[in-house]
Design a protein that fits this description.
Mean pLDDT of chain A: 92
Largest sheet of chain B: 6 strands, mixed
Oligomer: heterodimer
Order of helices and strands of chain B: HEEHEEHEEEHEEHEEEHEHHEEEEEE
Mean pLDDT of chain B: 96
Shape of chain A: globular
Number of strands of chain B: 19
Distance between the termini of chain B: 39 Å
Low-confidence stretches of chain B: none
Structural class of chain A: alpha+beta
Number of strands of chain A: 10
Structural class of chain B: alpha+beta
Radius of gyration of chain B: 20 Å
Largest interface: A-B, 12 and 17 residues
Strand content of chain A: 25-35%
Distance between the termini of chain A: 13 Å
Strand order of the largest sheet of chain B: 10-11-12-9-3-13
Strand content of chain B: 25-35%
Largest sheet of chain A: 7 strands, antiparallel
Number of helices of chain B: 8
């Protein structure tokens, strides 16, 4: 398989080096984990969310996802206030495994300052990052 | 030992899409199609594990029995030819150097000791340093090992090694040939299911692996990674060296009193172990289930009901069979009774759990 984009990395998203994606719609940022991250962790079975209204800081943990065998921190791509969590995933984590880049989104953040976006990476660089890790 | 080692089956794993990780100095597959599916394959059909990283130490000669009686906690004199036993290498303080399997090929003449991958060098030196006149040789580098585990393991192994395999009882083994090489087919395993562990010389490992996969296709046989190996053994509350037991653990507190046989005579660490047996251990290894939703993980603190430190989780996972959080850990003896409720500190949140009967899962085979 020599597809240049095996993890369906989207051009319009921002990414962190910790494998979260961020979709920016004015000052609202939807956050999830990338398909690369999901594949590396294996089936996600449990998620720990922040409370709605909680403040999060860029590059700091805001929750965890757990696979059967491991726990993994989630890092906030931007600073701001959590305005919504995808609480349906608590009952059924299916979407985060089947469609982590869309339906499996985790939280929505009201971003403090769009200036922080320069600290995130874009698709071409993220593709490079994830192909480097591949054997 | 700095170089990462590869088993003879390494390239097979890569070809089968295994996700490779470093484990105990070895490059091993952690997962193939997915942990949960692999776990289920072993519980319902049959799975293949590459356990070539395990160590093989031979103990030979007229002092072999005396030496093994001194080094190990179980009674080796009870072993007839073609019988194996679970046992412990113990130290003077009653701690556990390693948990091992002893295979008797010929009483008081030839024994094979199978040891944990991470402990091969430590065990070998320990055995040589406390030798009572046996010839002890570390042949780990020459042997591969394939575990065939699951309700359909017997049918599969029978097709390849002959129908006499199907009458083997737990802990029986036979020395036979495969591919013109001597190998050992033992009715043992680390999953709780019926199954076999096959010791085969490196040169024949790939042929045997492929033969097992091909013949096993009709039984739903698949390769299984270390991830499922760990969840399978956790569901049985089998100890993993470095987690439940180590050089400082007394076998009694670890619930391994059943492989300690003081009646057999002197052995390393006998008196501290017997003392623990008579006085009773102050802490005990228990199996527990989460009442609140959460997954316990190794290292998380266990707390009393008034949130005082009580112990530590040694292994924990989401049980793929039960779909709930299960764990193993040490608790004070007065909290170790079945049904006792306590807290697990899961990343700062005290979540309720309770001591349950183990194994967590009753195997079908």
């Amino acid at each position: 398989m020599s597809s240049p984009n095996p993890y369906n990395i989207r051009e319009d998203y921002y990414y962190t080096k910790e494998h979260e994606w961020a979709q920016v719609d004015e000052n609202i940022v939807t956050v999830g984990i990338t398909e690369y991250a999901q594949k590396a962790l294996g089936e996600i079975v449990y998620i720990e969310f922040p409370e709605e209204g909680q403040k999060v800081n860029q590059n700091e943990p805001f929750g965890v996802v757990e696979s059967v065998k491991a726990v993994s921190d989630l890092y906030a791509p931007v600073s701001g206030t959590v305005i919504e969590v995808n609480s349906g995933l608590l009952e059924d984590p299916g979407p985060i495994n089947d469609d982590p880049m869309n339906d499996g989104w985790l939280i929505r953040i009201e971003m403090d300052s769009e200036k922080e976006l320069v600290n995130l990476i874009r698709a071409p660089e993220y593709i490079k990052l994830t192909s480097k890790d591949k054997k | 030992m700095s170089e990462i080692q590869k088993t003879p089956l390494h390239d097979e794993h890569e070809r089968l899409g295994g996700r490779m990780v470093e484990f105990a100095g070895w490059h091993m597959p952690v997962e193939f199609e997915g942990l949960r599916a692999e776990h289920q394959t072993v519980r319902e059909n049959v799975g293949l594990f590459d356990v070539s990283h395990m160590g093989e130490i031979w103990v030979r000669g007229p002092k072999s029995l005396e030496t093994l009686q001194w080094l190990t906690s179980n009674d080796v004199s009870k072993l007839e030819a073609n019988k194996a036993q679970y046992s412990l290498l113990t130290n003077e303080k009653g701690g556990i150097v390693d948990d091992i399997y002893v295979y008797c090929l010929k009483p008081n003449e030839l024994y094979l000791v199978c040891v944990n991958a991470a402990n091969v060098d430590k065990d070998f030196h320990w055995m040589v340093d406390h030798n009572r006149g046996a010839e002890i040789e570390n042949e780990s580098a020459a042997w591969a090992q394939i575990a065939v585990q699951g309700p359909k393991a017997r049918a599969l192994v029978g097709e390849i090694f002959g129908q006499r395999m199907t009458s083997l009882k737990r802990n029986d083994f036979v020395v036979t040939t495969y591919d013109l090489e001597n190998c050992i087919v033992a009715c043992t395993g680390y999953t709780g299911e019926d199954g076999f562990e096959i010791f085969v010389p490196n040169a024949s490992a790939v042929t045997l692996w492929r033969m097992l996969l091909r013949t096993g296709e009709k039984f739903g046989c698949k390769p299984i990674g270390l991830g499922a190996r760990d969840t399978l053994r956790t569901e049985m509350k089998f100890s993993l060296y470095g987690h439940e037991i180590d050089d400082t653990t007394n076998p009694i507190e670890a619930g391994l009193g059943w492989v300690v046989k003081p009646q057999k005579g002197e052995f390393l660490g006998k008196s501290p172990i017997v003392e623990a047996k008579e006085k009773g251990a102050t802490r005990k290894l228990v199996g527990f289930k989460m009442i609140d939703k959460g997954i316990p993980r190794a290292g998380y603190p266990l707390l009393t009901f008034d949130k005082k430190p009580a112990g530590t989780v040694t292994s924990g996972t989401l049980s793929p069979s039960l779909n709930e959080g299960i764990g193993i850990g040490y608790l004070p003896a007065n909290m170790a009774g079945e049904g006792t409720e306590f807290y697990v500190d899961i990343r700062g949140r005290a979540l309720k759990a309770k001591v349950v009967k183990t194994p967590f899962v009753t195997p079908k085979s």
